[in-house]
Specification:
The protein has four domains: 4-37, no CATH class; 66-171, no CATH class; 235-289, no CATH class; 291-326, no CATH class. A hairpin with a 5-residue loop joins strand 1 and strand 2. It has helices at 4-19, 23-37, 91-105, 108-111, 124-142, 147-153, 159-171, 175-187, 196-212, 218-229, 235-247, 253-272; strands spanning 59-61, 67-69. Helix 1 runs antiparallel to helix 2 (23-37) and helix 8 (175-187) runs antiparallel to helix 9 (196-212). The protein is elongated and about 100 Å long. The chain contains twelve helices and two strands; from the N terminus they run H-H-E-E-H-H-H-H-H-H-H-H-H-H.
Length: 326
């Protein structure tokens, strides 16, 4: 029977060997040592890093030895109920959020279109992984835009195409959108009850949105002036001209001028024929019917001086029926 000193020497030898072995073999060695000494043991539990590839990771090498790994977007950090909507003008904030999300989760190359899709024949597995990642990003984008934007982009096949179409829609809105933003910027004022830093941020944001819509050439600036001159009294013709701007690729300020001159001639002909201006006419000004009577005595509308009942008027102290008033 081996002596106690022999057992101690064998145990120390096993401990030294375990220091040089991989963790799994080292664990086996320590367990064998414990079992040989008769001491019960509990298996150790090791934690795996979240960044460590698991058995479920799907990867493939594509063209130029680029490694493609299948991944899905986690939208836990996306603001609740935040969707792109042209009516709220929130493109700058939405663009920033989707860009940061793509950077953080490794989808930037799919968003900006800089990573070509691998050939299905030469790299079938990489092609499949690229498709899955692209669809994941596209689905996320479509889930966080308005119904109007969804209907306009859902038919596109790639996430980058959807993103670029949204960019064109929200940044290149034409002269009318530029006009609205320019008026907002020009009407912005520094006020003592509002922090100056906030007003500076508002002006900076408006300026950035206007610049993103593209440069304003001389003719476009002239068009903006013409459209802006059509105030609330001419809202119908303003809408008519804006529809022409949206539908025509060769629209210029001359188109606006011709449209205005046509309406002016129509109004003049109606006036010569003593015909009332139609409410459907684009330049029909509201309130251009028969003018109301104005009293030269009390300066009030609705009656003449001959029927004025105020002190000093010809009908002072009397009451008259509406039928007597011209």
């Amino acid at each position: 029977m081996p002596s106690v000193s022999l057992w101690i020497s064998l145990k120390r030898s096993l401990e030294l060997v375990s220091l040089c072995l991989p963790p799994s073999l080292s664990l086996m060695a320590s367990n064998n040592t414990a079992q040989s000494s008769g001491t019960p043991t509990v298996p150790a539990v090791t934690q795996q890093s979240s960044n460590t590839p698991t058995a479920t990771t799907v990867s493939a090498v594509g063209p130029d030895d680029i490694l493609f790994t299948m991944q899905y977007i986690n939208d836990n950090a996306w603001p609740t109920d935040f969707e792109l909507d042209i009516d709220t003008g929130n493109w700058p904030l939405w663009d920033r959020c989707i860009s940061l999300l793509a950077d953080h989760q490794g989808f930037t190359s799919w968003l900006d279109g800089t990573l070509p899709r691998p050939d299905k024949t030469s790299h079938p597995k990489a092609h499949h992984i690229w498709q899955v990642n692209d669809r994941s990003l596209k689905a996320f984008i479509l889930s966080h835009i308005s119904q109007r934007d969804y209907d306009n982009t859902c038919h596109l096949s790639m996430a980058h195409e959807v993103f670029e179409e949204l960019r064109q829609t929200h940044e290149k809105q034409g002269p009318h959108a530029k006009l609205v933003l320019m008026k907002q910027a020009m009407d912005t004022r520094f006020r003592p009850d509002v922090p100056i830093s906030k007003t500076l941020d508002d002006i900076r944001a408006l300026h950035k949105r206007i610049i993103q819509m593209g440069p304003i050439d001389d003719d476009e600036l002239h068009t903006i002036f013409l459209v802006n001159a059509l105030n609330d009294d001419f809202e119908s013709v303003q809408s008519n001209i804006m529809s022409l701007i949206s539908d025509s690729k060769n629209f210029t300020s001359k188109t606006v001028v011709r449209r205005l001159l046509q309406e002016d001639q129509l109004i003049r002909r109606r006036a010569e024929q003593n015909a009332p201006t139609s409410s459907t006419t684009a330049l029909a000004a509201q309130g251009q019917g028969r003018p109301r009577s104005l009293c030269t005595h009390c300066k009030k509308p609705g009656h003449l001086a001959d029927f004025c009942i105020r002190p000093g008027g010809k009908m002072a102290g009397r009451s008259i029926s509406p039928d007597e008033i011209l």
